[in-house]
Amino acid sequence: MFTHAAIANLNGLEMMVYNYVIKNRDKVMYMTIRELADGAGVSTTTVLRFCRKLNCEGYSEFRVRFKLYLEQNDEQLVNFGPSEIISFFKSTNNEDFDNLIDHAVDIICSSERIIFVGAGTSGALAKYGARFFSNVGKFSNHIDDPYFPVTNDMAKNALAIVLSVSGETEEILRFASQFSLHNCKVLSVTSHENSSLARLADFNISWHIPLTRVGGVYDITTQIPVIYILETIGRKLAKKMAE
Question: Which of 110, 122, 96 is nearest to 195 (CA)?
Answer without folding.
Answer: 122
